[in-house]
Structures are given as structure tokens and as C-alpha cells.
Predict the structure.
Amino acid sequence: MNQILIIDDEPGIRDVLKDVLEDESYSVITAPDGIEGLAILEKQRVDLVILDVWLPNMGGIEVLEKIKENYPDIEVIIISGHANVNLAVKAVKMGAYDFLEKPLSLEKTLTTVRNAIQYEELKKENQNLKNYLFVDDEIIGSGEAMKIIRSIIDQSAKSDSRILILGPNGTGKELIAKEIHRKSHRAAGPFIEVNCAAIPESLIESELFGHEKGAFTNAFNHRKGKFELAHKGTLFLDEVADMSMSTQAKVLRAIQELKFERVGSEESISVDVRIISATNKIIDEEIKANRFREDLFFRLNVIPIYVPPLKDRGDDLHELIAYFMEKYKRNSNQQVKVFSKEATALLKEYPWPGNIRELKNFIERINIMTDELEISKQACEKFLNNQQIAQDEPGGLNEFMDLKLNEAKDKLEREMIIEKLKNNNFNISRAAQDLGLYPSNLHSKIKKYGIEIDK
């Protein structure tokens, strides 16, 4: 049910609009002034605001400005009994959806409300369509393991059951979560991802549940958390086993009740979200070591999906290679390169410790670095992993020998950051995790070294 907030100082108008809109199956909240209206927005989910221009304590234009600053996705319909062209133009330029003059025509008001809500929903659908259009990869493989995974996806996607995806890093757990969302009845809603391992312990609660202005140092404005942003969609808790025990307890309660409080607030917020989680940890061992709550595991593990490492998916390797070779050829007119018989045998024997992520990076690298149309075993050996590249490059330590120690350390650090960013498709959170840094620290180093981020 869409929720509408009416901000008007005239009780009669509030009551009439509330009755009419509730008859149309909308949920309606009212406020007599802008201050109370903004307070409601901080505590409750609202899909549309109907806002009077002339209000006590804080004018409607100022309220509109604050709504667009803090809640840019919420549409606002301005109403006024003192309408003029300049005021209407100003309101629309500031982001108002439309401007209605009092006395209100109920038919026109209802039409405008329906159009505004449809417009908001259309924006959300367009954003999700964009997300799908720019999905980096698709699920590849026709081996037995992938047949089982596809079957589970097809059976579970239409439900709201919680799903726990298990498997080593780089096997495509996020890709599976996105596919489940895409095939669900929530596909038009948001897909919100949280990398639990990449967020400092001091910030994880705020990241998940949001916070109020002044809740802690540097909390200059209120902020919605990931649970709230995922309303009507899917929340993907990646690396869920990396949360602290105290955070796990709060997440357990939020999952059980689909209610939570922002940091610094006692007001409960209700949401409608589907939870998909993933981890590379062996959960049984984490539970035995008292690092993961058994009750949270049972809540998350309604439908388990295990994604095996690439070394156990030999039947899929040739399909994955063909897919990435087509994707990473230098240009659309170029002939797709192939691997020689000896090179193919080498790739089949290689254990792929980085799984599909490593294979993807290797294929991209070798397409750029070799001109061979039939790629040899020698070329594969040279470019198969970073360690081999470093050994084969001329000079070794020689390139650092003319530098002072601090300069050499900076050069090495810069190159290592660039390589980790490339290996993680320029995902800063994951690169920071690989480097053992907080994302904020990695951001600082990227700025320090002038590293350009490919989007």
C-alpha cells in the first residue's frame, strides 16, 4: 500500500484529503506544519508528499527544499490557495512534481496523485532495468553442479524464502543472488548489497539500519540504512559471517520482525524485504568457534545453495573460457582468439585458486597482452598469475634500486593497489578487503597516488 503524507495547516483540508485518499486504498499520514512533517519523514517510509505552500513555523518552499535535499526520490505535490505563476515555476524548478491551486478539484487531485506515484514507480523500474542492462556477466555452465543451482533458483525465486549462498570467493555468489532477484516478484524493486566484511565494526549498524542526525560524531544528517533502502526489494548480505556477534543479534531481530530502529532513535521502522546472504566461511566451524550465531544461521539458511570452486567444475571450464574470450576480445570486429591444444590442457590442470574471478581476469589480461590468434602454452604460463608476470618482467628489483626506500614503498604500494582494483573489477570494498584496509583508507590512497577508477 502506497503511503502519502499530507502537510497542511488547515484541519478541514487534511481530513477531506485523508478520507478521499483512503477510499482509494492509500495509507495516509497528516501533519499540521512542516516541522512535524519532516519529523514523520525521518521515522516512516513515505511514497508521496502533498504539501501546502503557506505553513506556520516553516514555509512550504523551505520544506520542499529540505525534502528534496534529504529524500530526493520522494515526489511532492504543492498545493496553495494563493497560487501565482512565479511560485509554481519556482516549486517545479526545485523538484516538485506538480502544483495544484485551492480550492482543490478532488478529481484532478486524485489524477495527479496517481500519476505521481506511477511516475515514482516507473523511475524505480527504470533504475532496475538499467542495473540489468549493465550486469557484467551471466551465469555460465551446463555441468551437473550448475544444473542443480539453476533448478534451485527457478524453484525458490518466486517465493520470499531466505536463501544462504555458500562457496569460496570468486565463484559467482553475487551473480546468483542477482539472478534470484531478477526472477522474483520483487524484480521491479531495489537490489541492495551490503559487503559485511568491508564495513568497519563501528559503522556496520548505521550502514544496515541508518541513523538519526546527531546520533554520533559526524552524523550531520539522518540517513536511511540498507534495510530501509531495500523496501519492496531484496537485501543481499554478502560475507554475512564476518559480522560481529553483537551486530548478528540485531540483524537476527530485524529479520525475525522486519522491524528495526535507526541508530539514535527509539521509533520502529517496518520494511518488506527479502533476505539473501552469502559467505565463503565454513559455517559449522564458525558456529563451533562461537563466531556465528546458530539461531541466525537457521533463520538465513531456509534454502541453501552451494557454489563449488572452479576446479570442481571441469565440465564448465570450456564454456566459461569461450564466454570470456568473446567478451574480452579487443574490438567487436576482431576474430575471437583460441587456445592451442597444449594451452587448453594447461588451463584444465591449473587449480584456479581465485576461481571464476581469476579466470575472468586472466582471459582479459591475455587478450590484451598477446597478439597470437592461437594462444600458446608458453603465453598462458607467462600470464596465468601475477607472480609469474612479476618473475618474467625484466629488471625485477632493478626498477626500485635507484629509488629511496620511501619512494620504492610508494611505487610498490601504488602498483599493488592498481592490481587489486583490477582483480576486483574496480570494486573498492572488495579491493580494500583483499588489501586488509578499510574502504575509507583505500579511498585516501587512491587519491594520494592519483589512481583513476574505471567504472
Q: What stands out?
A: The longest helix spans residues 106-133. Confidence is low (pLDDT under 50) at residues 386-395. The domain at 398-449 is CATH 1.10.10.60 (Arc Repressor Mutant, subunit A).
